[in-house]
Design a protein that fits this description.
By secondary structure, the protein is an alpha/beta fold. Helices cover 38% and strands 16% of the residues. The protein has nine helices and eleven strands. The strands form three sheets. It has a six-stranded parallel β-sheet. Strands 3-2-4 form a three-stranded parallel β-sheet, sandwiched between helices. A two-stranded antiparallel sheet has the order 9-10. The longest helix has 20 residues. The chain is globular and about 50 Å long. It binds NADP nicotinamide-adenine-dinucleotide phosphate (NAP). The site of NADP nicotinamide-adenine-dinucleotide phosphate (NAP) has 25 residues, from helix 9.
């Protein structure tokens, strides 16, 4: 029976620690979140980010733009936030409405305020293993969970299912920088089950229910479930067939309560760190 990796309680410890350290600062860290349109999932995520930022003692400002916002409006807002001395972190909530291409904007955010770590400078620094100003929150949270449960990364086979720019790719770099042997699988991968079965650390980030079933998991593996799926009853679940995989895995993250809360905690940690960096602390 696998040990459950409790992202919820680890995230609370991290958030408490940030709150304590923030109380000692002269100035509050400032996090700004830009939300465009009325995507219901994005609205919930942004509300939660705002709540956690306020709870940590940060200034939290949410900028809501209408679904019809133009490229010029968004660029002008980003420019203002780049020049705002009270803002340490700028987060552009994705996905954007169809008429806006995220890559027209993510590289306009000051890399030192790029709290999501999506700017090409930070992505490049991660690739080069050269201290990005910020590392993408979900991959960073996964590494923190692995560390907390003392799961060895060096020399281990890590398999990531999913190659998105926000999860799979940056996570592959973090694991490689920690000397894992990394395989990235995706929708065109052949023999996924054989590859997965070879994983000491198996991470699934696809958004497909039952992507990871018991028969493709190596006994004793650490199984990390990034997926967030709402089932037909409105209940949250992940990519992994949790109830069966837990009997064979060594460690497993639940959904909810695993990677999700760690992502938010890492966002707060990134904001705090960027504040220190910008203020020479
Ligand atoms: P994404 O951009 O849609 O990427 C999904 C990836 O999964 C793609 O690389 C895709 O392959 C791969 N994939 C899809 N079906 C597959 C299959 N049958 N076999 C193998 N690979 C397959 O998604 P994302 O933004 O990375 O998010 C993935 C999931 O994680 C979603 O459920 C999302 O809600 C969740 N998420 C959770 C958190 C958190 O904090 N817990 C954070 C971010 C995302 P191709 O590239 O070939 O299309």
């Amino acid at each position: 029976m696998a040990e459950i990796m409790d992202g919820k309680s680890l995230s609370l410890k991290i958030l408490d620690d940030i709150k304590e350290k923030t109380a000692l600062l002269k100035k509050r860290p400032g996090l700004s979140v830009i939300l465009i349109g009325n995507n219901p999932a994005s609205s919930i995520y942004v509300k939660n980010k705002e709540k956690q930022a306020l709870n940590a003692g940060f200034n939290s400002i949410v900028y809501k733009l209408p679904e019809t916002a133009s490229k010029g409006e968004l660029l002008s807002l980003i420019n203002n936030l780049n020049n705002d001395e009270d803002i340490d972190g700028i987060l552009l909530q994705l996905p954007l409405p169809k008429h806006l291409n995220p890559y027209d904007f993510l590289d306009k955010i000051d890399p030192k305020k790029d709290v999501d770590g999506f700017h090409p400078v930070n992505a490049g620094k991660l690739l080069l293993n050269e201290n990005p100003y910020a590392v993408p929150c979900t991959p960073k949270g996964i590494i923190r969970l692995l560390d907390e449960y003392k799961i060895q990364i060096e020399g281990k086979n890590a398999v990531i299912i999913g190659r998105s720019n926000i999860v799979g790719k940056p996570l592959s770099m973090l694991l490689l920088n920690k000397n894992a042997t990394v395989t990235i699988a995706h929708s065109k991968t052949k023999n996924l089950s054989e590859i997965a079965k070879n994983a000491d650390i198996l991470i699934s980030a696809t958004g497909c229910a039952d992507m990871v079933t018991k028969d493709i998991v190596k006994e004793g593996a650490a199984v990390i479930d990034v997926g967030i799926i709402r089932d037909e009853n409105g209940k949250l679940r992940g990519d992994v067939d949790f109830n069966n995989v837990k009997d064979i895995a060594g460690f497993i993250t639940p959904v909810p309560g695993g990677v999700g809360p760690m992502t938010i905690a890492m966002l707060m940690e990134n904001t705090y760190k960027l504040h220190l960096l910008r203020n020479g602390l």
